[in-house]
Inverse folding.
């Protein structure tokens, strides 16, 4: 496929069939050939949708500062709004430098999106072929062989890849014809990285025999994508029949499914939660050790980016490294981030039963359970041990020390969004909402 601004406009319109129209186009702008062509063509297309170029500085190369300056200059020349974000790449995560940098990059880009923004990535057909090969080598199933999709939900917006049917050579010709300037990242030729090894050593050999290799892989990815969609539909049906939630699956219902459907459902739920999927061996451990465990056991299988636990008669899917107990900290505005995998505490005035304004305005402090706490609930005449309340409520053991406790003048006034103490709550008060929390029971 040749490439032009008009073709890009057509590709974007095609993607609108699967998503809401874009409020903004947020371009992931590395300054390399592909993202430079995407940004230039998007501007030349003349859409009414606002454009923002976002450069992520990983700080892993000596040239990082010069690259950021180059990207800022290009965006200025095009008359495009520009943002640069520095990220810390966790090279000790065990995921490898490529995956760690990708996680940091997409985490930062996710924070840039407002409702219905489209994050535009410049991945093209050759990238898709490399991804399919990598996933085959890793032993991926249909979802992995399907490669990258054209558009999908991403936070409050969408992640779109409009160039997946465009070959790298077409983008290169466009860049030359338009006299564009771009960055050449030396790490892109370092064949110690798997993708670069395939790109420079393996794919050229394959293309010498099958020149239309990328098109063939694109067709295979399309077929695998259809199969993956059917498997996702089956998992959604199973989840509904089990009356479970993605983060909490009933064990007795799981036991009625075949092993293949168990694996399919667990993978589906992990993807729904934004967690990584386990290896085949780790998934076998979930089926062989966690699901059939005694009801009073607390087995755990974890991997980088995900974990499966059992408590009583349910299977719980969650982060592998939930943040530890909260440090004591004041509530200074309407939201409070609780740490990795624990979600956000939000305070909303006038939204039903909640804390009184007097208590809220006097100042709240949030901390973790230390042991020995007592609380008196509305309608009760005596205080109760918080430990006993959590046990009676069936709160899973690993969350009992991670529940945020709200204090006013050293008095416990609320336990997460579970309970508000007697005398601290009023109708049409300031409600406490714990968003994106792990399953508690």
């Amino acid at each position: 496929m040749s490439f032009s601004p008009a073709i890009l406009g057509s590709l974007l319109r095609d993607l609108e069939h699967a998503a809401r129209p874009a409020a903004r186009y947020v371009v992931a702008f590395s300054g390399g050939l592909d993202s430079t062509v995407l940004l230039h063509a998007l501007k030349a297309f003349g859409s009414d949708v606002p454009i923002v170029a976002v450069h992520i500085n990983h700080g892993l190369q000596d040239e990082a500062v010069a690259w950021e300056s180059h990207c800022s200059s290009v965006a200025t020349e095009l008359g495009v709004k520009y943002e640069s974000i520095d990220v810390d790449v966790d090279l000790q995560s065990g995921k490898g430098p490529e995956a760690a940098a990708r996680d940091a990059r997409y985490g930062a880009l996710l924070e840039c999106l407002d409702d219905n923004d489209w994050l535009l990535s410049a991945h093209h057909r050759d990238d898709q072929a490399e991804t399919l090969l990598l996933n085959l080598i890793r032993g991926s199933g249909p979802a992995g062989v399907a490669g990258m999709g054209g558009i999908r939900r991403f936070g409050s917006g969408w992640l779109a890849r409009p160039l997946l049917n465009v070959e790298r050579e077409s983008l290169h010709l466009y860049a030359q014809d338009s006299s564009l300037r771009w960055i050449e990242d030396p790490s892109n030729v370092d064949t110690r990285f798997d993708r670069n090894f395939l790109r420079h050593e393996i794919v050229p050999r394959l293309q010498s025999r099958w020149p239309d290799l990328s098109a063939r892989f694109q067709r295979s990815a399309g077929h695998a994508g259809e199969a993956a969609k059917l498997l996702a539909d089956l998992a959604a049906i199973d989840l509904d029949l089990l009356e479970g939630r993605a983060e909490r699956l009933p064990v007795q219902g799981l036991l009625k499914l075949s092993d293949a459907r168990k694996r399919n459902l667990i993978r589906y739920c992990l993807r729904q939660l934004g967690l990584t999927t386990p290896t085949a061996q780790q998934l076998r451990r979930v089926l062989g050790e966690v699901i059939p465990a005694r009801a009073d056991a607390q087995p755990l299988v974890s991997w980088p980016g995900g974990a499966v636990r059992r408590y009583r008669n349910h299977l719980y899917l969650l982060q592998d490294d939930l943040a530890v107990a909260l440090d004591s900290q004041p509530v200074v505005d309407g939201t409070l981030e609780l740490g990795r995998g624990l979600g956000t505490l939000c305070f909303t005035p006038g939204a039903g039963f909640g804390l009184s304004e007097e208590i809220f305005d006097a100042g709240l402090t949030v901390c973790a359970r230390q042991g020995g706490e007592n609380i008196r609930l509305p309608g009760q005449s005596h205080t109760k041990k918080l430990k006993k309340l959590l046990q009676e409520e069936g709160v899973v053991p690993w969350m009992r020390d991670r529940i945020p406790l709200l204090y006013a003048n050293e008095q416990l006034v609320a336990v997460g969004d579970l309970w508000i103490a007697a005398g601290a709550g009023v109708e049409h008060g300031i409600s406490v909402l714990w968003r994106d929390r792990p399953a508690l029971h």
The chain has 15 helices and 22 strands. The mean pLDDT is 88.
